[in-house]
Write a structure and sequence with these properties.
13 strands; 9 helices; 5-stranded antiparallel sheet; alpha+beta
Length: 323
């Protein structure tokens, strides 16, 4: 049984985590649809930069600023983000879910959030900073000629008016403490990292060029309702959510990047079927552990407990632990 989340646990701090969502006004959807790669890059860079700016400010950490010799210290956050582009009805709604560790790393010290369970950083202030960074990057892409826009937006005066309208709006950022440990967060996010825009289980019927599917209406107490779309409209909406070629929807930032990366490794958990095998940990001699084998892309065993059960599995799977 493959356990990708087991690998992720090794690069996660065991502290409470905050769930943050960065999104943009619907008025930007058209630019996003026709400039997905550039648009998503801007969204990732703007939101992650916002988190880093707030994380690197002593104001938001439980520390006496007067005792800090360095008034502009380097404080690292540990966080990762997952891009989503859909809502329940498959409408185009690009946003990023971030999982942020509730602690800042300053040298060898782990800082605690000043407001702890209330919030990590103030969302209103974050919204303004995020809006400013995002708009500046969109403008740069526009004047560089990188953006594909319709005829009206090709007029710089109209474009500036369009941007001013977006700047006057409130941009919403969602953030709250939701995960009490790294185990909770990995289990939660693992359910969403490789999902497509809609699961087969939500499709009610397909007939007469019409598709009916279930969705949750969050504006109506999350009631489950049914939507009917023509096949052309359904396919069009679904295609909006196929990411650009070689685009990475999951990205890691800050302290997580410094942890030793385990590339091309699969973790295989072997469940006992008949005779119970109680392997002993080589370090602590404890018997209350699970049997795990880690192999690399060349099927060489790089870590594991060599019990008779595993040796049998190695022969069946043709694993090679030589070298």
């Amino acid at each position: 049984m493959l356990k990708h989340e087991s690998v992720r646990l090794q690069t996660t701090l065991d502290v409470p985590y905050y769930h943050a969502v960065f999104t943009v006004p619907n008025q930007l959807s058209e630019i996003g649809i026709y400039n997905q790669k550039i648009f998503y890059e801007i969204l990732f860079k703007s939101s992650s930069e916002t988190l880093k700016l707030f994380g690197n400010n002593l104001k938001w950490w439980d520390v006496d600023e007067a005792t800090c010799r360095d008034k502009t210290p380097k404080i690292d956050l540990a966080f990762f983000g997952i891009l989503h582009s859909w809502g329940q009805t498959l409408v185009y709604h690009p946003h990023i879910h971030f999982v942020v560790a509730g602690g800042g790393i300053m040298g060898n010290t782990l800082l605690q959030p000043k407001y702890k369970s209330k919030f990590l950083f103030p969302v209103r202030a974050m919204s303004k900073v995020f809006r400013g960074i995002f708009i500046a990057r969109v403008k740069k892409a526009y004047y560089d000629g990188s953006l594909k826009v319709h005829d009206e937006l090709k007029d710089p005066n109209y474009f500036e008016s369009y941007i001013d309208n977006l700047t006057s709006r409130k941009w919403v950022i969602y953030m709250k403490s939701q995960f009490k440990s790294c185990t909770n967060i990995v289990e939660y996010m693992a359910r969403y990292t490789h999902k497509s825009a809609i699961a087969n289980s939500r499709i009610v019927s397909i007939d007469n060029n019409t598709i009916r599917f279930k969705y949750k209406d969050y504006k109506d107490n999350s009631k489950t309702k049914t939507m009917k779309l023509s096949s052309d409209e359904f396919i069009k909406r679904f295609l909006y959510h196929i990411p650009p070629k070689r685009f990475f929807r999951i990205r890691y930032y800050g302290a997580i990047q410094r942890v030793k990366k385990m590339q091309n490794i699969k973790t295989i958990e072997i469940q006992p079927q008949h005779k119970k095998v109680k392997p002993t940990c080589k370090k602590c001699k404890c018997e209350d552990i699970q049997t795990v084998v880690v192999i690399d892309r060349y099927k060489k065993v790089v870590q594991g407990l060599m019990t008779p059960k595993i040796l049998t599995q190695k022969e069946e799977k043709s694993f090679d632990d030589s070298g």
